[in-house]
Design a protein that fits this description.
Blueprint: E1 11-12, E2 15-17, E3 20-24, E4 30-38, E5 44-47, H1 57-68
């Protein structure tokens, strides 16, 4: 189960993944917010991903590539 203590802290291509539990309903089901921060500018964005689990490093890299232009994954 996701919680703020087991949240990953990935860094890729100048963006840091800083997810957190944004909501817990009356049944105890937790929902995540997938926040990313540009490490140079501090600008924040939210990724559209499943609210029920954290993203792996590969999934995070894919989202960053798709959102911020590196769709070929060549690291440039």
């Amino acid at each position: 189960m996701i919680n703020n203590h087991n949240a990953p802290n990935h860094l890729y291509n100048g963006y840091r993944y800083v997810p957190y539990v944004a909501h817990e309903d009356e049944d105890g089901i937790r929902k995540a917010e997938h926040k990313v921060v540009n490490v140079k500018t501090g600008k924040e964005a939210v990724l559209d991903a499943s609210p029920y689990r954290w993203l792996s490093m590969d999934e995070f890299a894919y989202h960053i590539d798709m959102l911020f232009g590196n769709v070929y994954g060549d690291g440039k």
